[in-house]
Amino acid sequence: MGRRPCSATPPSWFKITKYNKAKDLELRGWYEQFAIRRLVTSPRCKEMFPGLVDCFLKRIKVNPIISLDMPVPTATATSGGAGAPEPTVLHRAVQREGKFATYLQNIFQRRGTNTWEESAVRPCTVDDYFLFKRLIEPEFLQNTQTAIDNNTNIDATIMDEPIHWHFWFPTSMAFLAVDLSLPDELLSEHFNKIVAKLRKHDRLGYFKNSSNPIKTSIEKWSDNGVLPYIDLVTIWAKENNVRFSIPRIAKTIFPGYGGSEDRIRKETKKLAELVISDKFLYELNAHVGSKEEKTKN
Known about the structure:
mainly alpha
């Protein structure tokens, strides 16, 4: 069944004034908005974690400028009796999807554990191990496990590949093994070499230029209505199998401004596609983390 003609009107929940606070977002806030939109548009996330996706979609309709600490819109508190605080977006997500939502919290907020404050370089934890089992492509994991159990020959090159190459959910983390019996000087030398190799041989091409922070333009994202375009066109229209004409989109996102059709075509649409791409989010996350580390130090 094809998509219907360009005759759609915006849903009742969509109010352009809800996006006014976007202009006050700092870089970390913009990253969270884009990362959440990437998650809810991921077919694999919709399939494996429908409760998590539904949680964020409901939050977008109520208040599209999302904070992971905002209360979930519910008629009554869900725990603790009368007067109990409503669960936050992230807490509800954890209730529905368990550990995976905690993993997302670490992605969005770059939080290491309380034990390991150096989140950029840290030990691979027990929590990581169990998350790996959920993040590795199911078919690859099953086929490899079957081959090992049956003592079948496995291609040695595959077994030697970095584990993050086989994750179905994008992550900027590469996990290393460190021989603590060796002196620090040698470890530092090997660390620099292996990081260079991982960047050079990255299959997706996301990390080769991570040492060069992405050029960001908060004003450009805000002025060109990127978030309302994503929510209305990229998410809602596709979910409901409808289409908006360019004039309708321009009138909805830029009310009171004539001649905005070219702006939608040349700026807004292209930016909306860019900011929820994996490559952009990887680079933006690295840029945010770099700024925060400099501020902390």
